[in-house]
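Please review this one:
***
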Amino acid sequence: MLENMMARMLLRAGYRSRSLTTNVRQFRAAAKEIEELVATTPEPALRGRRPVAPLPGVTAVMRGWSAFMTIDHVNGVHEAMLELIPQLEAGRQPDIGDISRFDHPGECGPEVMPRFRDLAARVAGLPQSYAFNGHGTFLHPIFGRLNSRGAYALLAFHLRLHVPHVRHSVEVNART
């Protein structure tokens, strides 16, 4: 419970209070960092599943993911949020379902990267399509009730959370 409260405070203070332009810049920088890590790392290290040390926001299950599995997880979250934001902007109150569905990526490889690039470009372009002032909300089990603006901030927050996860996975698995 305390961890959820801290996460909510971080999202609200650190991301929702920033401008959409800042969130887009943060999101793009995180996507670029993942791209660079993948481009400069041999594939075996990107597929490796040696556990990383505990990191903020990385569950015990996630610690054993490969870098590619983490990217696949991010892709699933991006797809879901790209479907959710138009509903929120239209004033709907969607149920996001069980978020643990994103915690079970299968073994994967470089095939996740074209999808990552496409989804990242679509997420970064959302502020050109939406005003982020819709009255719809959804209940996130960790971050509480969020509107479209909060959902967009969550996208930047989430991707930035997984950059160290990918980096540490690469570092641990490059040593083998």
